Backbone:
């Protein structure tokens, strides 16, 4: 039985007061939730304040990105130790906005996943196809490559520290959600791939989140799919009411 895992990716939103207000509101609303793992991923500069605001509650904190080197001359980058130091449990690696806006490659994403695991952070490996790739019937190929390369060198002992987030790029921030069937098809494909790369036992245990215009109104039907184990939520995670409603739908 896989415990549901719902994470909010705040992206480049909120200010310091707004971050604390949202985090404190969620901590209060969700204080009794224990059947769902919950995380919020604020911008780097608000991680410490958000960690303080959710401290003692079931809400954990994640970062939206990281760098794979431990320290040194990497201007503008943030290390895993720094993330742990400000209270992070999770880190998103390879979000499509980093792949397609910033230009991150599968090789870089893989280095981040491995460095995250090495440091004790739990990576959320985000994968997903572009609209033109889906229309060209390349969804499975693209996602398979991203998962396989993203996990290269991750051992059988470590793989269950990883959550995979399937986020079709055409569904992100567009209001166009993948249908539950579309999400299920790709999730099942990913789980089959994990069985090939690792084992059936690992495949049965790894958690695969869906992301892309997830909101209170579609949470139940997405989460009802057998291979959808959680959600990575953008826009709807910016409001206490919406995000907590999504979690309570599943709890
Ligand atoms: O990219 C996402 C989460 O990482 C999804 O964003 P939206 O929920 O705003 O579509």
Residues:
């Amino acid at each position: 039985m896989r415990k549901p895992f719902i994470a909010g990716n705040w992206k480049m939103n909120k200010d310091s007061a707004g971050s604390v207000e949202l985090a404190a509101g969620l901590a209060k609303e969700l204080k009794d939730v224990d059947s769902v793992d919950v995380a919020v991923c604020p911008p780097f500069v608000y991680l410490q304040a958000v960690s303080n605001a959710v401290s003692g509650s079931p809400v954990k904190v994640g970062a939206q990105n990281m760098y794979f080197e431990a320290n040194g001359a990497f201007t503008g980058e943030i290390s895993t130790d720094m993330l742990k130091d400000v209270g992070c449990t999770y880190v998103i690696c390879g979000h499509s906005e980093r792949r397609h806006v910033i230009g991150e490659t599968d090789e870089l994403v893989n280095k981040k996943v491995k460095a995250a695991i090495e440091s004790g952070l739990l990576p959320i490996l985000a994968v997903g196809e572009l609209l033109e790739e889906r229309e060209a019937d390349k969804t499975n190929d693209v996602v398979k490559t991203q998962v396989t390369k993203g996990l290269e060198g991750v051992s059988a002992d470590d793989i269950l520290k990883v959550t995979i987030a399937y986020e079709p790029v055409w569904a992100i921030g567009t209001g166009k959600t993948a249908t539950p069937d579309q999400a299920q098809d790709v999730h099942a494909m990913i789980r089959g791939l994990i069985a090939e790369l690792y084992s059936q036992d690992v495949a049965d245990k790894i958690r695969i989140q869906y992301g892309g215009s997830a909101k209170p109104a579609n949470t139940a039907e997405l989460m009802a799919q057998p291979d959808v184990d959680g959600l990575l939520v953008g826009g709807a995670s910016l409001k206490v009411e919406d995000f907590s409603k999504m979690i309570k739908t599943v709890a």
